[in-house]
């Protein structure tokens, strides 16, 4: 029986900062069935406070695993930050490749020279939730301000496969490569591009979920995960039940237990909750009565 549901946000339960009525009702059903609801997102906690107030998760995994929070108490359980040395070497590679740079701190998104690509997208979607700052040099900003850096994003209109390999070979970081092209093109930004989502080595949504699993005493076999993007693959693949939202990346669908018929816009999350938690519990109650 599923005791915890961990869900991605954007593209899974949130679309352009909107949540369907069906999905909101499904979240309420989880509380009634005493299934712990956990947000598992690439966004930082600062960016998602408003969404957390609506969805009311018990716990949150943020920044692709750099933060684990008890949302109800506000207690930070785990935080992992990128070191200055790691950032410095990544920035050298970014400069050489002429990539757009922005970083995420506890309460800000700081972009070098201008807001573009993912930084521009987030400035549109999250302008009321988090502060955005543009600086001439990220490197100088880090030297002067010494912020906690939860993750680094490098973006460009080129193939970043080689850049990813170079960074991971030279530094103890994990670089998740995501393509925003073709049917996955960024309609908000209005262009095709790739970006690298860079966090400390071995930090992923899945690793953080495993830590939370141990912390709560809930085995992965009793956890259901839902997502749509490349950074969701591991947690979907290794959960008791792993769900890919309809319209998600093919690589995500290929490892999922089930792909919803509905998309994020038509209640794919609610479909998964109904099929794998609500209906299964009803079946179990009926079996016990017999």
Strand and helix map with partners:
Blueprint: E1 4-7, H1 21-32, E2 36-40, H2 45-55, E3 59-62, E4 67-70, E5 75-79, H3 84-97, E6 100-104, E7 108-112, H4 117-125, E8 131-135, H5 138-145, E9 151-156, H6 161-170, E10 173-180, E11 193-200, H7 205-216, E12 223-227, H8 233-238, E13 241-244, H9 250-255, E14 258-259, H10 268-289
Parallel strand pairs: 1-2, 1-12, 2-3, 7-8, 12-13, 13-14
Antiparallel strand pairs: 3-4, 4-5, 6-7, 6-9, 9-11, 10-11
Helix pairs in contact: 1-10, 3-6
User: In what order do the strands lie side by side in the largest sheet?
Assistant: 5-4-3-2-1-12-13-14
Would you report the number of β strands? 14
Question: Helix and strand string, N-terminal first?
Answer: EHEHEEEHEEHEHEHEEHEHEHEH
How much strand? 15-25%
- Tally of alpha and pi helices: 10
Low-confidence stretches: 285-290
Summarize the amount of helix as a percent range.
25-40%
The rounded distance between the terminal residues' Cα atoms is 19 Å
Radius of gyration: 19 Å
Q: Name the overall outline.
A: globular
Main sheet properties: 8 strands, mixed
Report the mean per-residue pLDDT as an integer.
93
Features of the shown structure:
single chain; 290 residues; alpha/beta; 8-stranded mixed beta sheet; 6-stranded mixed beta sheet; 38% helix; disordered C terminus
Could you please describe the fold and organization of this structure?
The chain is of the alpha/beta class and 290 residues long. 38% of the residues lie in helices and 24% in strands. The chain is built from ten helices and 14 strands. The chain has an eight-stranded mixed β-sheet with strand order 5-4-3-2-1-12-13-14, sandwiched between helices. Strand 6 and strand 7 form a beta hairpin. Helix 1 runs parallel beside helix 10. The longest helix has 22 residues. It is globular and about 60 Å long. The C terminus is likely disordered.
């Amino acid at each position: 029986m599923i005791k915890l549901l961990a869900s991605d946000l954007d593209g899974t339960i949130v679309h352009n900062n909107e949540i369907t009525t069906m999905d909101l009702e499904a979240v309420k059903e989880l509380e009634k069935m005493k299934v712990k609801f956990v947000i598992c997102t690439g966004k930082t906690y600062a960016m998602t406070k408003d969404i957390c107030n609506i969805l009311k998760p018990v716990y949150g995994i943020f920044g692709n695993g750099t933060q684990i929070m008890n949302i109800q108490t506000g207690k930070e359980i785990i935080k992992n930050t990128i070191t200055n040395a790691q950032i410095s070497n990544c920035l050298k590679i970014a400069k050489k490749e002429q990539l757009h740079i922005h970083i995420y701190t506890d309460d800000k998104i700081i972009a070098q020279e201008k807001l573009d690509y993912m930084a521009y997208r987030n400035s549109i979607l999250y302008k009321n939730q988090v502060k955005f700052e543009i600086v001439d040099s990220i490197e100088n900003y880090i030297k002067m301000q010494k912020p906690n850096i939860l993750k680094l994003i490098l973006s460009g209109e080129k193939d970043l496969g080689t850049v990813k390999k170079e960074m991971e070979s030279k530094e103890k970081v994990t670089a998740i490569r995501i393509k925003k092209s073709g049917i996955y093109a960024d309609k908000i930004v209005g262009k095709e591009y790739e970006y690298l989502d860079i966090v400390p080595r071995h930090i992923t949504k899945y690793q953080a979920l495993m830590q939370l699993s141990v912390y709560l005493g809930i085995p992965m076999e009793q956890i259901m995960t839902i997502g749509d993007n490349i950074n969701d693959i591991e947690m979907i693949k290794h959960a008791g039940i792993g769900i890919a939202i309809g319209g998600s990346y093919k690589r995500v669908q290929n490892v999922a237990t089930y792909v919803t018929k509905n998309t994020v816009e038509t209640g794919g999350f609610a479909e998964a909750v109904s099929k794998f938690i609500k209906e299964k519990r009803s079946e179990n109650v009926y079996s016990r009565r017999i």
